[in-house]
């Protein structure tokens, strides 16, 4: 597998994107994307993430699913309190509703 630095080195040797693509047997859009990223950021590292990180961890999701299966009659408010005491996560009721909906729990 070729690294991104290979694409850039070829580009600096005055080869076109099409020539690099044929030479390395890599799709044209891949080569173009890497060179564009290098021109804009000065590096081929990953783009900065957009948006806020997720509040709910995988462990919290498992606990929420277990809690929802154990007692389906609990309100989201009491589920939020249960999660806060059991694993220390302070999560809003809206987030809990969204997560439960994503897991397939409705109503």
TrEMBL record:
InterPro entries assigned to the protein according to its UniProt record, in alphabetical order: Homeodomain-like_sf, WH-like_DNA-bd_sf
Protein name (Swiss-Prot/TrEMBL): Transposase Tc1-like domain-containing protein
Taxonomic source organism: Staurois parvus
């Amino acid at each position: 597998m070729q690294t991104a630095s290979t694409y850039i080195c070829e580009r600096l040797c005055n080869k076109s994107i099409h020539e690099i693509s044929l030479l390395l047997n890599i799709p044209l859009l891949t080569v173009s994307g890497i060179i564009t990223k290098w021109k804009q950021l000065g590096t081929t590292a990953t783009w900065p993430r957009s948006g806020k990180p997720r509040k709910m961890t995988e462990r919290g999701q498992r606990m929420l699913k277990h809690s929802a299966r154990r007692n389906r009659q609990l309100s989201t408010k009491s589920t939020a309190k249960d999660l806060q005491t059991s694993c220390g996560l302070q999560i809003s009721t809206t987030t809990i509703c969204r997560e439960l909906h994503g897991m397939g729990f409705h109503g």
